[in-house]
From TrEMBL:
Keywords: Membrane, Transmembrane, Transmembrane helix. It comes from the Eukaryota. PANTHER family: GLYCOSYLTRANSFERASE, KDEL LYS-ASP-GLU-LEU CONTAINING - RELATED. The chain crosses the membrane at residues 40-63. This is Glycosyl transferase CAP10 domain-containing protein. Residues 207-456 form the Glycosyl transferase CAP10 domain.
Length: 536
């Protein structure tokens, strides 16, 4: 089945939707008639209510993209009509798959029958089975990240200036993707980032507007706010990357590892998330080692080498159990020692930044263990929403050992609370950072970004189109494996979640103050703890 015939099936399905829905409302009404009569006593009242009922049902059907999910329940004496959304039963939605058309012995080409934007937009919204829900709160930072261009928009000049450090330019025109590669990125970061965007297009075909963007795959943000604060500045260049900090304006985007990290054998996020959940069920929090665990590469940052001084030794036990990850050795052994799901064996897990933010963050938070978060300076796209004492325990950057020692002692004497913090973080990761939401985040970020563009995106001269076929069919080894595993099978049968509005500045200010207060609170407890030990 090719895309075009999929389109036709979808449209046929949809055109009958409203008709079917309406007859369903009438049937429901008819079924309810006797009960209504009993409740209200007279048929006259029923007749009075009937038009109101139909009108309400009809209006509700207009509001919602899926018209067949409503039934009218209970008409009580106080004249309230309750319309309840009903779970769809017996009628599984028809999933459409978009096959990957690999050709043998020929140059791989891209499909030519991409859906027209308007066509898919209509059919998908009619087709989707669940009423749209609001996206998680961390999506609100999309507005914050794009705020530097809110007034001015993004001009071509601003975009072109982002070429200085970019690894590639991505152009999306009429659903086709073109890549202009400027330079080699670390490992396969660029490959899997582009792959991720192509999967987004398979998930929501024809629903992304034309756009051009520059992507920098390195760790540290580079667009300094202070360079663009004066009155006559030319406007900051919009540059996408995986992490940002307080002093820069880079736009944060989900990192490559959501589609797999081939070099160190980390699976795509969707399957890894399942493994992590199973891993958590294998070992209860209370049965885990009552220490703080970390395993990683200490040679990428001073702060990590500093952390190693907290390891168990003849002189000290700071409650920390720290290990060096030797990736070269691990890769020779087939990565048996680095299975992430089996690393959830301690009640506390330390997260510490490397050269910038670290990909390990989401794996650590997913463990059901209480995360001890060493004061971070960088952020990815979701971490800003997480709160100290609710999702993690804050650890001082200086004096890490004392801070860790206290955190573990506190947790082992407040087991209930420590477990709750661990659980809150892993629930957040399992529920709000599942792959659907990662795609929805990309969807909204790119849509909002494209709204700001003041120029018409054009495919670069002589650029070659890139699609899932050109990337996956020619890949081999773990690249191929991860690509096939994270391949989006076909268009989504549900709409993306609804983007929440920006935070009011006051609300955002209060949010950050609450966060800071919680951190200060912990520091106070910590200082008191060490003072009381000194006195003894
Ligand atoms: C309808 O609502 C009334 C009052 O709230 C309740 O007593 C009654 O059981 C409900 N009937 C049905 C069928 O849910
Ligand atoms: C009207 O009835 C509904 C359901 O029976 C109930 O939930 C609601 O509180 C009632 N309202 C008033 C004002 O009594
Ligand atoms: C591909 O080409 C090779 C030689 O170029 C040939 O031996 C093989 O049969 C071809 N395979 C297909 C599926 O056409
Ligand atoms: C970036 O773009 C400017 C013009 O917009 C051009 O002069 C410069 O050569 C480009 N730099 C790179 C590294 O492509
Ligand atoms: C930390 O201490 C443990 C236990 O003594 C040891 O096995 C481990 O190798 C140490 N880690 C480092 C990085 O030295
Ligand atoms: C896989 O691809 C790489 C280059 O992309 C190539 O060097 C290597 O030989 C290929 N391996 C196999 C088994 O085809």
């Amino acid at each position: 089945m090719n895309l075009l015939s999929n389109q036709l099936t979808m449209q046929r399905f949809c055109s009958s939707g409203l008709v079917r829905h309406f007859s369903e409302v009438l049937i429901t009404l008819w079924r309810w008639r006797p009960r209504v009569k009993k409740n209200l006593g007279t048929t006259t009242t029923l007749l009075l209510f009937l038009p109101l009922l139909i009108a309400t049902a009809f209006i509700s059907s207009l509001w919602n993209s899926d018209t067949s999910n409503f039934s009218v329940h209970n008409i009580s004496r106080n004249k309230t009509v309750i319309i309840v959304s009903r779970k769809p039963q017996n009628r599984p939605p028809k999933r459409i798959t978009t096959p990957l058309n690999c050709v043998k012995n020929q140059t791989q080409t891209c499909p030519t029958n991409y859906p027209k934007t308007s066509q898919t937009q209509k059919s998908i919204s009619d087709y989707s089975i669940t009423p749209t829900s609001t996206c998680p709160d961390y999506f609100r930072w999309i507005h914050e990240d794009l705020s530097p261009w809110k007034v001015t928009g993004i001009t071509r000049d601003m975009l072109e200036r982002a070429n200085q450090t970019a690894h590639f330019r991505l152009v999306l025109v009429n659903n086709k993707v073109y890549i202009h590669k400027y330079k080699q990125s670390i490992q396969t970061r660029d490959v899997f980032t582009i792959w991720g965007i192509l999967q987004l297009l398979r998930k929501y075909p024809g629903r992304l507007p034309d756009l051009e963007l520059m992507f920098d795959c390195d760790d540290r943000p580079v667009v300094l706010s202070r360079d663009y604060s004066g009155p006559n500045n030319k406007g900051p260049p919009p540059l996408f990357r995986y992490s940002g900090d307080r002093w820069t304006m880079d736009i944060v985007f989900p990192d490559w590892s959501f589609w797999g990290w081939a070099e160190i054998n980390i699976n795509p996020w969707e399957s890894l998330l399942r493994e992590l959940k199973e891993g958590n069920n294998r070992r209860n929090w209370i049965d885990r080692e009552p220490y703080a665990y970390w395993k990683g590469n200490p040679f990428v940052a001073e702060t990590r080498r500093d952390l190693l001084t907290c390891n168990l030794s003849d002189k000290h036990d700071w409650n920390a159990r720290l290990y060096v990850q030797d990736w070269i050795l691990e890769s020779k052994r087939g990565f048996q020692q680095s299975n992430l799901a089996s690393q959830c064996a301690h009640r506390y897990k330390i997260y510490i930044e490397g050269y910038a933010w670290s990909v390990s963050e989401k794996y650590i938070l997913a463990c059901d263990s209480m995360t001890l978060l060493v004061k971070p300076y960088f952020h990815d796209f979701f971490i800003r929403y997480l709160q100290p004492l609710r999702h993690y325990w804050p650890i001082r950057d200086k004096d890490k050992c004392k801070s860790i020692k206290f955190a573990v002692d506190w947790g082992n004497t407040h087991k209930q609370k420590a477990q709750e913090i661990g659980r809150a973080a892993s629930n957040f990761i399992q529920e709000e950072l599942k792959m659907e939401y990662v795609y929805d985040y990309m969807f909204h970020l790119l849509n909002e970004y494209a709204k700001l563009l003041k120029f018409k995106p054009v495919a670069p001269d002589g650029a070659v189109e890139v699609c899932s076929e050109t990337m996956a069919c020619n890949a081999n080894g773990s690249h191929k494996k991860f690509m096939m595993e994270s391949l989006v099978k076909g268009p989504s049968i549900t709409n993306p979640c609804t983007l929440p509005p920006p935070y009011e500045p006051k609300v955002l200010g209060a949010f950050y103050r609450r966060k800071l207060n919680a951190i200060l609170q912990v520091q106070k407890w910590e200082d008191r703890y060490w003072e009381s030990l000194k006195k003894q």
